[in-house]
What does this fold into?
Amino acid sequence: MNDIIQLSPLDLSFAALLILALAGLSFRLKLGLGKRILISAARTVIQLTLIGFVLKALFAHVHILWMSTMALTMLLAAGHEVTSRQKHKLRGAWGFSIGTTSMFVSAFSVTVFALVVIIGPDPWYEPRYAIPLLGMLLGNTMNGISLSANHLTQNMRSHRAVIETRLALGQTKSEAIADIRRESIRTGLIPIVNAMAAAGIVSLPGMMTGQILAGNLPLDAVRYQIMIMFMVSAGTGFGTLAAIWMTSHRLFDDRDRLRLDRLRS
Amino acid sequence: MGRLETGGLRTLCGGPFSFAVEHGECVALSGPSGCGKTLLLRALADLDPSEGTVLLDGESRNEMTASQWRRKVGWLSAESSWWFDGVGAHFSKDWKKSFHCLEKLGFGEDVMGWRIERLSTGEKQRLALFRLLLNEPQVLLLDEPTASLDVSNVWKAEEVIADYRKSTGAAVVWVSHNPEQIARTADRHLCFNNGGLEAAE
It folds into this structure.
């Protein structure tokens, strides 16, 4: 693993030239994106550099307390991200709580499962394995949850009359939104299912690419990637199911009344 | 059977309402638009949060599940809603035993094979009435059930509702803007006034 070619700041500045060119083109074409491209690029540099130092420190001082702090921070950040991507948020702390809880039960438990049962590093929370794994799981679960929750709340709003007619005919809340709920879950899961189907043909997954660049044997990298794909799909699936279940229950009250007033308009 | 009684019922925008609709009785509700007629029906069907008591034959709605209550106290919205592609999918399989009712509303058996998109607003409204009656509710809460029907279909719908009321003893609350219809169908007429209900002249 020591034969990797290191990138110098000068190398990175060549890459940055391309971003500057893209931003310049965006100003020229009045895409209204130039400023955002530059800010986002700057954020990439700053955030990744910071996380580089954090990881360096974590790797140097392997301790479950530091690991837990890091994991918790990542979880809360993902919960915040899920909430802020919703077009119609639940009022109060509900959106954040549901997002965080469902990622906790899915991404967290799947990561622990992968560490303890599958990879088995020593100690099991070894940050070199735990952090990248948790990061990938949280990132993907977060996407699935925010896509599906968005689909759910938007469709419950637009199908209000249908839902209430079904309730009025004596259906329970679960019956009245069964198809909306199903569609929402599908919306959250389809990207990751597609990614599994296209893996290796259309795209080389990022983690595998990284391992190969770092000098690992392709077949070793492939095995890791397969495991990651399965974990990510399972995590996204469980997380999406949990989030949709909780969100849809929150939008009814104890008398099975549709309560869209619990969404911010 | 079917006696609906409310006490101190506060809906989202009015009340308190206290009144009873007797077994087999038809009560018309009228008032300017926006006065809360629809909200009152929705509160009776327990579709909106409301305070106060609502009793069916002396039994409180809180003593049964919301879905049991709504099967007994059936609400027909002013605009009908459909969610499957085909008409038939919206009806329980034993619709045939009430075929006479469907026929009276002007449909043949083949309507169950139609697609929703070919129905007119009026056809949808009549089919929504049939869909509600199949549940055999003990109380009918009708929100302008004939608003988009032409004259001959208005009569058909009125007749079907009257037959249902006679044969089952259901209580009916009927929101209508049409004084002639109220005179034809209702035993009693309540009018919205200053957020409350009073007997009309």
Notes: Residues 151-168 of chain B form the longest helix (18 residues).
